[in-house]
Design brief:
Keywords: Methyltransferase, Transferase. It comes from Hymenobacter citatus. One of its GO terms (molecular function) is methyltransferase activity. The protein is an alpha/beta fold. It contains 6 helices and 12 strands. The strands form 2 sheets. The protein has a 7-stranded mixed β-sheet with strand order 5-4-3-6-7-12-11, sandwiched between helices. Strands 1, 2, 8, 9 and 10 form a 5-stranded antiparallel β-sheet that branches. Helix 1 packs parallel to helix 4. The radius of gyration is 18 Å and the shape is globular. The two termini are 33 Å apart.
Length: 244
């Protein structure tokens, strides 16, 4: 766990720290290889229960037991679950995000990558929570396959993964609505991102948007049952993967 006051190349963490310390206009810029640059106000990561999308509120309702909140950001989901009496460990690879969560009162916080083997030393979890398109943390379809195996070592018997993702095929439609895809290229849901804040730009990272059918194929092949619990008009969905 890190409590360093300043870590290079952590634009997300620095934006969250600034917002937490009163700079309410702190805004990241999200750069990708599939869309125009987009602003991401730090305030969005501090949202309250009633500011959360319905998919997220549904996920919180079906959490069970010990929860591992992956990519926890400023801790909005972890704090809500703590209030409800859950034991939650909040995980984020951003040292600044970890500092913010500690300062906001998240009781168990760790600065680790999702695939860090140290997580296997924990007591097993009943729920792995991956919200805000959190399945994307696996990076690629290869990463999804690796994660589904890795998660088996983190989950208690009958444990569940609750994750949101989206089908971004609409980004590749032509004017007539037909898909224009490079079938010899990577899967269209594998996106490369960078984040910047003020004068600081972070390292590029991969993010996966998995359409429902490909997620179902990978999860069933890895030995999970798949239930799609909810979806919205932006082609985002909430899925529950349960160990057989």
């Amino acid at each position: 766990m890190s409590s360093s006051p300043s870590v290079a190349h952590d634009p997300l963490g620095h934006a969250l720290l600034d917002f937490h310390h009163g700079h309410l206009s702190a805004t990241l810029t999200v750069h990708s290889n599939v869309a125009e640059d987009e602003p991401l106000p730090a305030s969005y990561l501090f949202r309250t229960l009633w500011e959360m999308p319905e998919l997220e509120r549904t996920a919180l309702e079906v959490c069970q037991g010990r929860v591992l909140d992956v990519g926890a950001g400023a801790g909005c989901h972890a704090l809500e679950l703590q209030q409800r009496g859950y034991t939650v460990k909040a995980l984020d690879a951003s040292p600044g995000a970890v500092q913010v969560m500690q300062q906001r009162g998240v009781q168990q916080v760790a600065c680790h990558d999702l695939f860090d083997p140290i997580l296997r030393d924990d007591q097993p979890y009943d729920t792995i929570l991956m919200l805000m398109n959190g399945l994307g943390l696996v990076g690629t379809l290869d990463g999804l396959e690796k994660f589904l195996v890795h998660a088996r070592g983190l989950l208690a018997p009958g444990g569940q993964i609750l994750a949101t993702s989206a089908d971004i095929a609409y980004l590749y439609e032509d004017e007539e609505g037909a898909l224009v895809l490079n079938l010899n290229g990577p899967y269209y849901g594998e996106v490369e991102y960078r984040m910047s804040y003020k004068e600081e730009t972070g390292a590029p990272f991969h993010w996966l948007f998995a359409d429902a059918s490909i997620l179902q194929d990978y999860a069933e092949a890895a030995g999970y049952t798949v239930e799609f619990l909810d979806h919205d008009e932006q082609d985002q969905y909430l899925v529950r993967l349960t160990l057989l």
